[in-house]
Amino acid sequence: MFQGSMVAMVTPMRDDGALDERALERLVEFHVSHGTDAIVAVGTTGESATLDHDEHAHVMRRTVEIADGRITVMGGCGANSTWEAEQLTRVAMEAGCAAALLVTPYYNKPTQEGLYQHFSHIAEAVPMPQILYNVPGRTGCDLLPETVDRLAEISNIVGIKEASGSLERAEEVIERCGDRIDVYCGEDARNLALMNAGAKGCVSVTANVAPDLMHRMCLAVLQGDATEAEALDARLAALHNALFLETNPIPVKWALAEMGLIGPGMRLPMTPLSEQHHETVRQALKLADAL
């Protein structure tokens, strides 16, 4: 249903942690003009865990308004409460988002049956396209392929962002479910490999700062141009590493501030990028022609 480079967009904030409305407009325009295929508003990279419900809803609505039909917008709607995730998904639908991205419940560590019931309940309650998101390294919860297989039978569950850290795992999901749902890579360093294995695109942190290169890399894979895809991915490789030197979204927000697109603000417990990493991130931006 969706494909290509989908940016896990940061949520810009002022020095005091307040939402930065003008910077949000700049970011959306930046992605519209640089070829990004879709924006994920207020996903986990967007610091969803530290926005309250009203702020979360506001950023989704404003992103859709600013995009004005020029680019697909998805809403980050995951939560560790099924009720809260359902409410956020309903807000995303009412705001005009094309899909909801739903991370597995964090900290709770539900069983596989609990995960099935969590996602199936939201899908049945809110009739909009929904994309699962598995990132056990951040949530402490792993959505196994057999559970994804069950969920793929639900008509409005249309995809999964797979970030388990295992290429073999992602390939198993594609083999089991790839004829019913689309698989997207959630780890930038593996984007090319997973797309070569059948993924339809990526939900990318790196696309925040190098949207044109990421879009072109994804397009090259989808068009079967392996030489071009490999060349573009090589130009992105340093960024894939540099943007995870500290916990995401710390490095990418510093990079965007260095590019003049946002200010340096973020909310505790996230803190600014350590000075020892500044030059590494700066050089990676230069290699990708982002500076």
TrEMBL record:
Residue positions binding pyruvate: T45, V203
Q: Where is this site: Part of a proton relay during catalysis?
A: T44, Y107
| Gene Ontology terms, MF aspect | 4-hydroxy-tetrahydrodipicolinate synthase activity
Keyword annotations from UniProtKB, A to Z: Amino-acid biosynthesis, Cytoplasm, Diaminopimelate biosynthesis, Lyase, Lysine biosynthesis, Schiff base
Q: Where is the active site?
A: Y133, K161
Q: In which pathway does it act?
A: Amino-acid biosynthesis; L-lysine biosynthesis via DAP pathway; (S)-tetrahydrodipicolinate from L-aspartate: step 3/4
Pfam families listed in its UniProt record: DHDPS (PF00701)
Could you tell me what reaction this enzyme catalyses?
L-aspartate 4-semialdehyde + pyruvate = (2S,4S)-4-hydroxy-2,3,4,5-tetrahydrodipicolinate + H2O + H(+)
The catalytic activity of this protein is classed by the Enzyme Commission as: 4.3.3.7
Give the location in the cell.
Cytoplasm
- Kindly give the SMART domains that the UniProt entry links to this protein: DHDPS (SM01130)
Record's InterPro entries?
A: Aldolase_TIM (IPR013785), DapA (IPR005263), DapA-like (IPR002220), Schiff_base-form_aldolases_AS (IPR020625), Schiff_base-form_aldolases_CS (IPR020624)
Superkingdom is: Bacteria
Q: What does this protein do?
A: Catalyzes the condensation of (S)-aspartate-beta-semialdehyde [(S)-ASA] and pyruvate to 4-hydroxy-tetrahydrodipicolinate (HTPA).
The family annotation for this protein states: Belongs to the DapA family.
Entry's HAMAP family? Answer: DapA
Q: How does it assemble?
A: Homotetramer; dimer of dimers.
Write the protein's name.
4-hydroxy-tetrahydrodipicolinate synthase
Taxonomic lineage from the root: Bacteria, Pseudomonadati, Pseudomonadota, Gammaproteobacteria, Chromatiales
Q: By which gene is this protein encoded?
A: dapA
